[in-house]
Amino acid sequence: MSAAPKLSSEAHDQRAILRNCFLFQEADDAALDFAIRHMEEVYATKGQPIILQGEGSDHVYFIKSGSVEIMNYIAEERRTQRVALLGPGNNFAEFSVLNHGHKSGSAYAYEDSELLRLHGDHFLQMLSSYPELSKRLAKLLAELNQKVEANSELVQPYKPSLLNLSPAVLELLPQAQWKRLGAIPVDYRPGLLSVAMKDPRSPLVSEFLAGKPIDVAAYQISDEQFEQAVLDASNPTTRTRGAANRAQEASYPDTFALMKACSLFAEFPDETLQQLKTHLPIQEIKKGSVFAKPGYKFEAIYLIFKGTFQLLKPIPRARTFTPVWKLGPGALIGEVPLLSGKPHSYIVRALEDCLVVPFPAGVIEQLMASPVFTIPMAVQLANRFQELSKFTLQQAYKPDATPNFK
Predict the structure, then answer these.
(1) Greater model confidence, 104 or 215
(2) Is the pLDDT of residue 80 over 70?
């Protein structure tokens, strides 16, 4: 890339150009002037790589004119897929700056394009100095997560470390049925049978279990893995390896210690956390119960104090679910729907007796006024989005509020 040539658009008011970017649409003049002082304008010709997958990125890019194609190489399938086509007003590469990681995709100029480039240090300084920007970024990232959750079919791959066959599991799905169904049972928790399926969208397993009060969580398994899993299931030393591999649950003596260990509250003064603690009750969720369903309107964000929850995405055609997240102490439930203002996409089931600490929407709104809270929230949502994208068959990138681009 090179410095941009003198194009007619340079005569336009720089503030007006930035206000076309989603992040700056509600920014005050001081925030815009900070960005303008530290931005560099660069020019990318059609087809030119801007960032390559696997590389680190020290800059965040804002598209002034033209368009940029975000591509992802899937090594397992040896193919490249388009993740997004971004136009004026969009930005990219903020994830790498927020989490100091490597790019999960490549960015190419889809046509001759003018870009505004902001160094990562200045980007983070800007978020710290202008709270409305870090708050807006956190809400943008929540919306990106929600779009992928709502519009994608999520498929988690089977891993041998999941296998934990008990007599109860084999009663529910006897070995004589495995090949006919193209499915092998993996684990059982109250009300939830985990199954590895050659075709997670097949209704055969749910039809076989019809009448039983059980939800089915489906993992994707290949033909080769299926044969190996059958052998593992027949071997007493490997059929319960999942039990040994279950993560040891973190333990906290009280909600103050829990908040201190959570990255969202790491920079808060102890006095503030002690004050918060006195206003936050602990809520009990019984083992096997469903805490939330798709469409549920969250009026709080819940911090897990004790126990484990499984988040499941419905596969309507199969009348089964695919497991997406398993969340334990220190993790959050409900941050995406609350911050995005969009419906919840998952079933949230308690795998054991759980305790959660609710942060009501009013408390979250007060916390969102401080970059000390919103920047770690943005980092967490960026990491979540990247992990989620690994298991999507379709991906969404551009929020509704960004300018329309064709």
Answers:
(1) 215
(2) yes
* 204/186 Cα distance (integer angstroms): 16
User: pLDDT, tens digit, for every residue of 85-136?
Assistant: 999 988 898 888 888 876 678 899 999 999 999 999 999 999 999 999 999 9
pTM of the model: 0.81
Domains in the chain (CATH in brackets) are: 2-129 (2.60.120.10), 131-399 (2.60.120.10)
pLDDT tens digits along 271-307 = 999 998 888 999 999 999 999 999 999 999 999 999 9
Give the 3-state secondary structure of residue 220: strand
**Residue 285 · residue 291 · CB < 8 Å:** yes
Q: What is the pLDDT of residue 148?
A: 79
**Which positions ≥6 away from 139 have C-beta within 8 Å?**
339, 340
Number of helices (H), then strands (E), in the chain: 15, 20
Determine the pLDDT at residue 253.
Answer: 84
